[in-house]
Amino acid sequence: MPEMPEVEAVCRRLRAEAEGATIRRARILRPSMAKGDIEEACRKARLTRVERRGKNILLHLSSGPVLHVHLRMTGNLYVTVDHRMLVTSARAVFELTDGRGIVFEDPRALGRIALLERDSLPEVGLDPLSPEFTAEVLALLVRGSKRPAKLFLMDQDKVSGLGNIYAAEALFRAGIDPRRAVGSLRRPRIARLYQAIVEVMRAAVETSDRLYSSPGRLIEAERQELMVYDREGEPCRVCRRPILRLAQGGRSTYFCGKCQG
Predict the structure, then answer these.
(1) Taking a C-beta distance cutoff of 8 angstroms, is the pair 90, 74 a contact?
(2) Are residues 91 and 107 in contact, defined by beta-carbon separation less than 8 angstroms?
(3) Is the pTM of this model over 0.90?
(4) Residue pLDDT, tens place only, 3-49
(5) Dihedral angle over CA of 8, 14, 16, 21, nearest 10
(6) Domains plus CATH for the chain?
(7) For the chain, which terminus, N or C, has the lower number of CB atoms within 10 Å?
(8) 96-123 confidence digits (pLDDT tens)
(9) Which residue has the higher pLDDT, 246 or 224?
(10) Rounded Cα gap, residues 148 and 248, in angstroms
(11) CA 61/CA 45 separation, integer angstroms
(12) Active site positions, annotated
């Protein structure tokens, strides 16, 4: 599944290449993946804004409603120079008045696209890349929580966009055991966690923006720089102790028993 930095890369490219463009018409090629009268809403509508909320892509239309796109496992959304140039896995295409197209591609057809009213847009937690996310705010969010630190970070209602990879990496950078109750952290450690989250996510977005082309294509490039994720049994890059793995919330958690002790 594309992580938040990859979704951010998709949104940045859409903003640069298609924000402000007018859609001549939309064609839904896989109706089972779509909800709402998208073709009618997009007819001669202008794409006024591209917004990301967590892993949700929101395309604001001048006609009023918003297109909500979720890429799921293998989806991608990109601009092509000619709306007629479509791959077999294209599930929807938005033909622009200048001849280009915005293509929703998904080989496994797991993604979703829906037409929503502005008052029913998905609500998610604070974005770790937003100015509203601060060490003080994080301290308020964790106060009194007995949840393990890793599970807390992956709760999209608290902090949005932190998936399995980056939650593990942020906890390593902050020196926090993923099993520790997040509400037991003292303010200096919370400040370190905040800084670690921001640094990990900014670095990941920069990498995604530079290298991302479609879901799954970035994994090897990312793993060259990862400190703990998917490195069970390999030596810690800091202390040389073997990286450990445990199951949390049905997902694998990777950590260093010494550096995060």
Answers:
(1) no
(2) no
(3) no
(4) 788 889 899 999 999 999 999 999 999 999 999 999 999 999 999 99
(5) -150
(6) 4-120 (3.20.190.10), 135-255 (1.10.8.50)
(7) C
(8) 999 999 999 999 999 999 999 988 888 8
(9) 246
(10) 9
(11) 6
(12) 2-3, 55, 251
Structure-derived torsion over alpha carbons of residues 10, 14, 15, 18, reported in degrees to the nearest 10: 180
Bridge partner residues of 104 (DSSP): 77, 92
CA distances from 230 to 171, 211, 224, 250, 255 (A): 14, 20, 11, 15, 10
Question: What 3-state DSSP class applies to 116?
Answer: strand
Q: Which residues pair with 61 in a beta bridge?
A: 47
Q: Are 24 and 96 in contact (CB under 8 A)?
A: yes
- Residues written for the chain: 261
CA distance linking residue 105 with residue 113, whole number of Å: 11
Contact status, residue 71 vs residue 212, Cβ threshold 8 Å: no
